[in-house]
């Protein structure tokens, strides 16, 4: 029996030759041979049991497509997690524990927490994507990281269709990374994530990093008055992201294309000779990057905002055909009209080469290129 025949005989919702540009906020991509939607955990179990007979077919797991760049079509199966729901599973005097399905929209989850006066993810508002993608990327913004509130996740092993629970240490969270981007990449499918949120008092203390994070200060003064509430911070973050980042209603976009880069203080001194005004931020030992070169294990590091470098090198607002860099943020590659995935990749590679030629730094893409 062919995969097409097996899918037809199943109760799964699927399509053949599905245009991928419809399923990526970058708006590029050809067709997937098979596109399967997972609405419930039972759907995922059914699919994995079916897939055991077709493991020669490549499998791609997709959320909302807000971090996936399709270079072309996909000769295999795209599995989209669209299961939704938020469930309260525990509560005490200080905390509430929520379990959210992998296909649940992340921003809607943050809004749910804020509406219920639960603190821990409010600075992560308006980040596109799903609950299932959040721990994979270990998303972070404005002084907050999803791992701060993370408790555990449930995931199904693709090869066995068995469900396993991962706690925080097992996820091996790192800067914009986790075990699911490395050792366990393409081996598990996340079905739900559990977060532990703190019950907030009516107002956020002035000393809270949530409200005192540098980029939030000015916006908070515009949109609210002290003492600030969780909703004030939530709305301030949304306002910042709307002002700085391209919106999917206007452009094809995946948000930031590159992660910020860690360099040694010695490398910083070298760069300051060429870029006297270069921006950098100190980091503590917990933030240090994974080191391939063990000779640097005792070195001191700083974090360089790659967006600053790209803007300094003239990439902000640049366009080549219908692919370019957003006029307000040099980290954001956009499409403004018909384009191919390969055109986006070519543009991105030009940006990377430009930074390397000027600084010797090999910047790293944040998006998943398929």
UniProtKB/TrEMBL annotation:
Cell wall formation. Its cofactor is FAD. It comes from Candidatus Dojkabacteria bacterium. One of its GO terms (molecular function) is UDP-N-acetylmuramate dehydrogenase activity. One of its GO terms (cellular component) is cytosol. Its EC number is 1.3.1.98. Its main location: cytoplasm. It catalyses: UDP-N-acetyl-alpha-D-muramate + NADP(+) = UDP-N-acetyl-3-O-(1-carboxyvinyl)-alpha-D-glucosamine + NADPH + H(+). The active site is at 176, 256 (proton donor), 366. Keywords: Cell cycle, Cell division, Cell shape, Cell wall biogenesis/degradation, Cytoplasm, FAD, Flavoprotein, NADP, Oxidoreductase, Peptidoglycan synthesis. GO terms for biological process: cell division; cell wall organization; peptidoglycan biosynthetic process; regulation of cell shape. Residues 27-200 form the FAD-binding PCMH-type domain. This is UDP-N-acetylenolpyruvoylglucosamine reductase. HAMAP family: MurB (MF_00037). SUPFAM superfamilies: FAD-binding/transporter-associated domain-like, Uridine diphospho-N-Acetylenolpyruvylglucosamine reductase, MurB, C-terminal domain. The gene is murB. The keyword Cell cycle applies. InterPro entries: FAD-bd_PCMH, FAD-bd_PCMH-like_sf, FAD-bd_PCMH_sub1, FAD-bd_PCMH_sub2, MurB, MurB_C, MurB_C_sf, Oxid_FAD_bind_N. Belongs to the MurB family. It comes from the Bacteria. It is found in: Cytoplasm. Pathway: Cell wall biogenesis; peptidoglycan biosynthesis.
């Amino acid at each position: 029996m062919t995969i097409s025949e097996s899918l037809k005989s199943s109760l799964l919702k699927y399509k053949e030759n599905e245009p991928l540009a419809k399923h990526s906020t970058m708006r590029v991509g050809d067709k997937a041979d098979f596109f399967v939607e997972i609405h419930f955990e039972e759907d995922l179990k059914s699919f994995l049991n079916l897939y055991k007979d077709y493991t020669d077919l490549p499998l791609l797991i997709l959320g909302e497509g807000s971090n996936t760049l399709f270079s072309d079509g996909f000769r295999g199966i795209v599995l989209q997690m669209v299961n939704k729901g938020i469930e309260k599973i525990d509560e005490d005097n200080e905390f509430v524990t929520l379990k959210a399905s992998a296909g649940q929209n992340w921003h809607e989850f943050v809004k749910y927490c804020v509406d219920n006066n639960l603190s821990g993810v409010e600075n992560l508002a308006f980040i596109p994507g799903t609950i299932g993608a959040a721990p994979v990327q270990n998303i972070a913004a404005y002084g907050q990281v999803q791992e701060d509130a993370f408790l555990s996740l449930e995931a199904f092993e693709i090869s066995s269709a068995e469900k396993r629970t991962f706690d925080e240490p097992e996820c091996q969270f790192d800067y914009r990374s986790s075990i699911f981007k490395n050792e366990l990449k393409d081996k598990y499918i996340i079905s739900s994530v559990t977060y532990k949120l703190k019950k907030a008092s009516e107002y956020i203390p002035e000393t809270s990093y949530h409200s005192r994070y540098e980029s939030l200060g000015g916006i908070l003064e515009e949109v609210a008055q002290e003492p600030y509430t969780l909703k004030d911070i939530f709305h301030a973050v949304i306002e910042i992201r709307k002002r700085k980042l391209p919106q999917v209603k206007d452009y094809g976009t995946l948000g930031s294309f590159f992660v910020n880069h860690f360099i040694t203080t010695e490398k910083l001194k070298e760069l300051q000779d060429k870029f006297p005004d270069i921006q950098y931020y100190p980091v503590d030992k917990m933030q240090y990057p994974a080191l391939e070169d063990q000779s640097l294990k005792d070195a001191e590091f700083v974090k360089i905002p790659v967006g600053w470098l790209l803007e300094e090198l003239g990439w902000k607002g640049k366009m080549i055909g219908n692919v370019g860099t957003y006029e307000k943020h040099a980290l954001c590659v956009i499409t403004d009209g018909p384009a191919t995935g390969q055109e986006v990749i070519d543009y991105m590679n030009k940006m990377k080469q430009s930074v390397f030629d000027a600084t010797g730094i090999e910047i790293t893409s944040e998006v998943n290129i398929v």
